[in-house]
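Tokens as discussed.
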């Protein structure tokens, strides 16, 4: 009896040391492969088995063949080679090699198929297996095997092997979580780079144009957005005073959607539009040609673009415009501070190949204010779900225009009012952009000979 107790004590002590060594390896490992190499060795020694086999899964359930581990070394090479070969063979039914594990009965069927494969490879050897699971997600199967005479399987052995399987699941899941975290970090860096590039494509500063003030700002809902505004000289070869008095194109657009895809399409449209402006065509022809050029790219992306295009001549104060289904800009007249919409008929860019656009014009008077904006402003939601809407935006524009603020002051007041409506600390659901054009009060038409 004393010898039996001493033997049990030595076995318990040995098992505790084995589990402690595996726990230490789990706390300190920096190489998952090294940790997984220990698992079959510890498993076999814990229960006195001839060998052990670990079959890990990828996060999507495929067999992680590069991380198959087995012990002892003299049997592992052939066993692993045969198991990999069997896993690579096409099956009439889905197997772990080509079908991710799913929950419930189907997940049990996957384990049974893998158990059958392992049992077939080991022949007459007695095999016991258990699932490697963490937070209800299967990460593999762990087996111990031995001759039918030499391997006993008790509740204590089952608990020990399950403990090893649980520690292994934690290690594998931890590795995948870290890899996922690294992948997100790389994506964040790419998004940051994309946001920097996009920010450089939007004008850093508003141009100096004779007789008007300009202010603009884009607030993307994500790091990269689909809103677009631009100020494009129609005569880029001019400089100084000649450039200030030449006509300019003022554009506001919105690619349907948010994030990277919308940002990429916005960048594409920007290049096309800048090339079209150099043609000197009126706004309706600019939109017509842009729609034809962008048709194929937008069709492939299953997205459309709203775009308001206008050109302003400082010498005549005439603003011509065409609209591709964008939110009509609002003009607040100095006389009576009445607000009108600048709209013209036209379809979305990319909706159909042949599309006609109307062209309108308006003469701006001293003190007039025009607000270009995207639907991220008017459709911004407050804490109760109510929309900011156009009526509220009109009231804010009238109030800011009466105050006599410059263009930048009007823009700041509009965004401050939008922020109060949305609520402190709340993120906008969509990109929000605004451009304010204000005609200087002191402007006078120049004398034109003849």
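Sequence:
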């Amino acid at each position: 009896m004393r010898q039996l107790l001493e033997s049990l004590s030595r076995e318990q002590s040995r098992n505790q040391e084995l589990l402690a060594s595996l726990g230490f390896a789990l706390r300190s490992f920096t190489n998952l492969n090294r940790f997984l190499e220990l698992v079959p060795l510890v498993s076999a020694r814990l229960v006195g088995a001839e060998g052990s086999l670990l079959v890990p899964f990828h996060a999507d359930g495929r067999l992680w063949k590069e991380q198959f581990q087995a012990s002892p070394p003299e049997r592992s090479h052939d066993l692993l080679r045969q198991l990999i070969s069997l896993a690579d063979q096409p099956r009439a039914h889905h197997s772990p090699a080509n079908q991710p594990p799913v929950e419930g009965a189907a997940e049990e069927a996957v384990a049974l198929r893998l158990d059958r494969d392992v049992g077939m490879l080991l022949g007459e050897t007695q095999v016991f297996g258990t699932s490697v699971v963490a937070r209800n997600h299967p990460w593999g199967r762990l087996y111990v095997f031995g001759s039918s005479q030499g391997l006993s399987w008790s509740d204590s052995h089952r608990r020990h092997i399950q403990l090893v399987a649980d520690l292994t699941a934690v290690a594998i899941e931890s590795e995948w979580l870290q890899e996922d975290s690294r992948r997100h970090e790389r994506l964040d860096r790419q998004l940051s780079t994309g946001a920097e590039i996009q920010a450089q494509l939007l004008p850093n500063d508003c141009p100096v144009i004779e007789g008007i003030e300009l202010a603009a700002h884009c607030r993307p809902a994500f790091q990269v957005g689909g809103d677009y505004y631009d100020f494009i000289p129609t005569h880029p070869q001019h400089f100084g005073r000649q450039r200030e008095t030449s006509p300019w194109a003022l554009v506001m657009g919105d690619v349907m959607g948010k994030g990277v895809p919308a940002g990429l399409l916005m960048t594409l449209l920007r290049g096309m539009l800048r090339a079209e402006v150099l043609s000197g065509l009126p706004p309706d022809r600019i939109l017509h040609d842009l729609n034809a050029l962008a048709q194929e790219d937008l069709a492939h992306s299953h997205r459309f673009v709203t775009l308001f295009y206008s050109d302003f001549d400082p010498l005549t104060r005439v603003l011509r415009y065409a609209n591709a289904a964008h939110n009509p800009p609002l003009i607040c007249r100095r006389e009576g501070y009445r607000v009108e919409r600048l709209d013209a008929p036209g379809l979305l860019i990319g909706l159909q190949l042949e599309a006609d656009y109307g062209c309108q014009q308006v003469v701006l008077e001293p003190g007039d204010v025009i607000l270009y904006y995207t639907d991220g402003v008017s459709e911004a939601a407050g804490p109760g779900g109510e929309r900011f809407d156009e009526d509220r935006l009109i009231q804010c524009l009238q109030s800011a225009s009466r105050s006599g603020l410059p263009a930048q002051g009007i823009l700041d007041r509009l965004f401050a009012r939008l922020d109060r409506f949305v609520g402190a600390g709340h993120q906008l659901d969509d990109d929000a952009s605004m451009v304010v054009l204000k005609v200087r009060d002191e402007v006078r038409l120049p004398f034109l000979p003849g």
